[in-house]
Amino acid sequence: MSDTPSFTRLTDLAARDVGGAVVWANDEFFGEKEALIRPELPTFSPHTFGHKGQVVDGWETRRRRPGGPGVQGTEHDSAIIRLGIPGVVRGVTVDTAFFIGNYPPHARVEAASVPGFPTPADLLAAEWTEIVPVSPLSGDCEHHFAVEAAGGAERRFTHVRLAMIPDGGIARFRVYGEPVPDPRFLAGVPVDLAALTNGAQIVAASNMFFSAPENLIKPGESRVMGEGWETARRRDGVGDWIEVRLAAQGVPAVIEIDTANYKGNAPDHIVLLGADRPGEPAGSDWFEVIGQSSMLPDYRHRFRLDDARPVTHLRLEVRPDGGVARLRVLGTLTDSGLAAVQARWQDNA
């Protein structure tokens, strides 16, 4: 488990900062269930005690005892997570960081697709599919488990259930995969073509020294400097760049480039390029969408596009370097773009 698998470079569909939520757990006596999906790394402060014992940064249940409170009728502890972005799950990470004498010896992961607005009772009664069988865990360690196609076919899931067997503590739980948006909410209305929640993805970036490129297209506002995309300082004068594959082919109408919280490290200027590659074979077919434009620190820059061409990809060039909090691309899907979204939805239903 020393090598980090490639699926960890995909989107964490369960993370709190993309809308994930831990909606149920049968026990959380020592550590709250919500800690599982915090985007930041777990921490530990020894000899820090509350009224229930050592304060932990993770989900930790009480020691199971026959007839004990909160455990009747169960053989293990479990929690249900609503994915912030429903999609195809490619792998999961179960992190027992700082849990050494109190980690669970085994874990299992199941997934379900439940439409609408299910309550915890609805989810407990749902049909669940095992995506990670009962597997051994070690203390203070990241455990990566690849997920095979359920029943030989890819499926779009909305919820996952993590079981620790029989009890103990888990610091973080990551659910890596590919978003599959519901086409009903993209058809015939303006949408953010670059939104992670709509199926857009970062495909390449020149530099990711200070923060992850994916931050650029996450939902919500960037609250602090670390929640955007920021590159190292360049000394060659070339400039940094990031490429986004949009949700599908669309026509942009308004572009927002937000440098929120970047005050002494915003780019001096930017250029935005586009490409129309429905099949994604070409790589040098860029055309100008926004010409060279100066950037202000800590400012939301809005650009209105007239007579824009259809695009499937955008390349934001920041010169010479710096940080950008968010990129928003407000526009509409083309007929072929919507057809592609509908086909992906049907293939993974």
Describe the fold and architecture.
This protein has 349 residues and is mostly beta strands. It is 5% helix and 40% strand. The strands form 5 sheets. Strands 1, 2, 6, 7, 8, 9, 10 and 12 form an 8-stranded antiparallel beta sheet that branches. Strands 13, 14, 16, 17, 18, 19, 20 and 22 form an 8-stranded antiparallel beta sheet that branches. The chain has a two-stranded antiparallel sheet with strand order 3-4. It starts with 10 loop residues before the first strand and ends with a helix. The model has no long low-confidence stretch (mean pLDDT 92).
Sequence-ordered SSE layout with sheet pairings:
Layout: E1 11-12, E2 21-25, E3 49-50, E4 53-54, E5 59-60, E6 77-95, E7 106-112, H1 120-124, E8 129-136, E9 142-146, E10 157-165, E11 169-170, E12 172-179, E13 191-192, E14 201-205, E15 229-230, E16 240-258, E17 269-275, E18 287-294, E19 300-304, E20 311-319, E21 323-324, E22 326-333, H2 335-347
Antiparallel strand pairs: 1-12, 2-6, 3-4, 5-11, 6-9, 6-10, 6-12, 7-8, 7-10, 13-22, 14-16, 15-21, 16-19, 16-20, 16-22, 17-18, 17-20
List keywords for this structure.
Jelly Rolls; 8-stranded antiparallel beta sheet; 2 helices; Probable allantoicase; Allantoicase_dom; hydrolase; 349 residues; 2 domains; mainly beta; EC 3.5.3.4; purine metabolism
What's this model, at a glance?
Residues 19-179, 199-332 form the Allantoicase domain. This protein is mainly β.
Would you tell me which CATH topology of the largest domain applies?
A: Jelly Rolls
CATH homologous superfamily designation of the largest domain: Galactose-binding domain-like
Q: How much strand? A: 35-45%
Overall domain count: 2
Overall morphology: globular
The DSSP helix count reads 2
CATH architecture of the largest domain: Sandwich
InterPro entries: Allantoicase, Allantoicase_dom, Galactose-bd-like_sf
Enzyme class: hydrolase
Organism: Catenulispora pinistramenti
Keywords: Hydrolase, Purine metabolism
